[in-house]
Specification:
Elements: H1 5-21, H2 23-31, H3 45-64, H4 74-84, H5 89-116, H6 125-147, H7 152-166, H8 172-180, H9 187-219
The protein binds protoporphyrin IX containing FE.
């Protein structure tokens, strides 16, 4: 049956791009992989974390359209305005706020799954290490985001968090000074947290997620431990 002209045009555009980039090969390599027997819902936790991150990125862009990192009252006022007066502002802020908790819970569940399945072992150690960095970056997102509404709770929670950071061994005091933008907590701290929260860390997470997924596609996923083949080797048959 001939295609509708609009669908036909879509196919032509995709073909045109593919002829010049061969991207469909990469897409097929990524998407159509063999998965081990026994793959179940627990294997979706990594993708769920990724979608939580994407949702944070999209809602975060809309929040950034209204937010002002101004420690003299502007930040608090911009969040108040967004919540109370902007169309769907409270909804988008709520999605971002609850989405942050969802992402933290999912990343821990996903880590638990890969740990219990023994997926950190050879040859996936590097992907585990990238995962650890992703976990730390997710926590940095939660910490830096918490300050941004700049209300009493945000302010004092972050004062406590940066004081605790300062008690860490060797690098602790330097890290606390870096986060605060000096020895005192103030206006620089807010703009610093904002830059880290909306530029530095999301960029790093996106790049590392790409590397993480590349390794998943390259190495394949681990079969559940109870499905792995255990060869019974008779000791008396092994030659010395
Ligand atoms: C932003 C955070 C993360 C995202 C978006 C993410 C995404 C994914 C996805 C989509 C997969 C393939 C499907 C699956 O097994 O669920 C995966 C696999 C894997 N992830 Fe993550 N991940 C994240 C954090 C972590 C963390 C914190 C760890 C551990 C410290 C980790 C370690 C691994 C390992 C070892 C695999 C291979 C699993 C296997 O071979 O069965 N990931 N990740």
């Amino acid at each position: 049956m001939p295609l509708h002209p609009v669908a036909e045009a879509g196919v032509t555009v995709v073909d045109w791009i593919d002829e010049r980039t061969s991207l469909s090969g990469a897409g097929r390599w990524m998407m159509f992989r063999k998965v081990p027997k026994g793959t179940n819902w627990f294997y979706t936790l990594g993708s769920a974390t990724m979608f939580a991150f994407l949702s944070q990125a999209v809602t975060g862009v809309f929040l950034a359209m209204y937010y002002r990192p101004d420690a003299t009252g502007g930040a608090y006022e911009s969040v108040r305005h967004l919540t109370n007066e902007v169309f769907l502002g409270a909804f988008v802020r709520g999605m971002h706020l609850w989405g942050a908790s969802v992402m933290v819970v999912l990343v821990f569940l996903h880590m638990g799954r890969t740990f219990l399945w023994g997926a950190y072992k050879y040859p996936r150690e590097l992907n585990w290490i990238i995962g650890v960095v992703l976990l730390i970056l997710t926590m940095v997102m939660a910490l830096t985001g918490y300050l941004l509404p700049f209300d009493q709770r945000a302010y004092w929670a972050t004062v406590v968090a940066s004081n605790i950071t300062g008690t860490g061994p060797i690098v602790g005091p330097y890290l606390a000074d870096f986060l605060r933008g000096g020895s005192e907590f103030g206006a620089t701290t807010l703009s610093r947290f904002y830059a880290i929260h909306m530029l530095v860390v999301p960029g790093l997470i996106a790049a590392l997620m790409g590397a993480h997924l590349y390794l998943v596609a390259k190495l394949g996923t681990t079969a559940p431990p109870w499905k792995k083949v255990h060869k019974d080797v008779k000791l008396d048959t092994i030659e010395a």
